[in-house]
Amino acid sequence: MSDSGQQETEDDQFAREIEGLLNFGQQDEEVEISNYEKIKLGLINERLAPELLPFLTEAVDGLYQQLQTLVTKEQELRTRPLSAIKENEFIILMDKERGSYLLRNYLRTRMAKIEEQCALILSQEKYLQRLSSLELTYANGYMRILQKVFDNSFWNQLPAEMKERERDCIIQPELYRMIFCRTKKDIKDIWLPKESEYVSLKAGDIAALPYNSIAQHLLEGSIDLL
To answer: Would you list the DSSP string of 65-127?
Structure first.
């Protein structure tokens, strides 16, 4: 085999390897959605939903492993002179940064919501089940620090009755807020409490509906928020 033929074979092998590592943003109808796409959709839904959504354990773990593999590849590339790095090998650097940025944003978005709704989340079993083990540790630690701040401030000067009343003032998410969504499949009989009627949507429909009316469909993966 000629040198040029051997070089083409190595390039093809490299391209297949990178495609297998990431498949960022690319999706075949017959192939399961990539971890990158799952977290990208999860980030949008988490930002728009008024309540904490379930942690995407499988997708986060999968993308993290992919990024670790890319870090190893990147370290190998950095041992070469710049002139020796092929053009398509720069894909590794770009996709690693893109994936890392997405993952950080997803985790930070959830962290901000946990801080805002910490008392509520720790008081209800359904929200506790939606936390990762690290998020649960963080939420408990954040609540302890918050309580210590209150204890060392004016809080201690308040009458016992007022303290108890303030403890009951837990921030509640706006579950009846109107929100835009897109359906992934046909959905029948969505209850609208304000209008006291049911509506049905077809796959691909975009609608503005009360979050509480579509929350279960969002958890089931039948709807994405916009």
So the answer is: HHHHHHHHHHHHHHTS-GGGS-GGGHHHHHHHHHHHHHHHHHHHHHHHHHHHTHHHHHH-HHH
Q: Which residue type does 128 have?
A: L
Which candidate, 22, 20, 104, 45, places its Cα nearest to that of 222? 45
| Whether the Cβ atoms of residue 24 and residue 98 lie closer than 8 Å to each other | yes
Contact present, 177 and 211 (Cβ < 8 Å): yes
Count the neighbouring beta carbons within 10 Å of the beta carbon of residue 16.
10
Q: What is the mean pLDDT of the chain?
A: 82
Please, which residues have CB within 8 angstroms of residue 84's CB and are 6 or more apart in sequence? none
**23-82 pLDDT tens trace:** 544 444 434 578 999 999 999 999 999 999 999 999 999 999 988 888 887 777 777 776
Beta bridge partners of 223: 183
Q: Which segment, 1-15, 94-108, 149-163, is predicted with the most confidence on average?
A: 94-108
List the alpha helices (DSSP H) in the chain. Answer: 3-21, 35-48, 57-78, 90-116, 118-123, 125-128, 133-151, 160-167, 211-219
Tokens of 12: 């093809």
Query: What Cα–Cα distance (Å) separates residue 87 from each residue in 3, 10, 68, 99, 167?
Result: 19, 14, 22, 20, 59
32 by DSSP, 3-state: which? coil
| pLDDT tens-digit readout, 113-135 | 999 999 999 999 999 999 999 99
CB-CB contact of 224 with 184 (8 Å)? yes
